[in-house]
Fold:
Amino acid sequence: MSGWADERGGEGDGRIYVGNLPTDVREKDLEDLFYKYGRIREIELKNRHGLVPFAFVRFEDPRDAEDAIYGRNGYDYGLPPSGSWQDLKDHMREAGDVCYADVQKDGVGMVEYLRKEDMEYALRKLDDTKFRSHEGETSYIRVYPERSTSYGYSRSRSGSRGRDSPYQSRGSPHYFSPFRPY
Structure:
């Protein structure tokens, strides 16, 4: 996310501009991102078809708006900054046996399941669910199959496997917060 600007709408009224948001952004995503800076009075999300979404977030205290600008200016989204592969694995275990989890520096995560059925269940049931890191930071995550392979199948991390390998049908959905770099 970029395009953060100084406070708008008057001297010290606690309103900030948030720009360059992803097209699937929701009000609750913005609330999750900014609640730690202070009490939010109002969120105005402007998401018109064909335009890049933006928002105005108004805080009760103008000093909180200043803190939010300082803390989030130029921020790129993914999982919460404190989200680890262990947190992701714990969250995704709800769908089945996770054999591999990783979180990249940009906040995008990947999980591999032992069974295709578990991966399909994760795609159906864990998309748009609230993720909580071990430090208590939260975000709503999106779940989708790995795009580089045919519907959810992944190649093995350790190279090619034999035809009878149980890992051949291991699914690899990716997980990320709705805020992601473009």
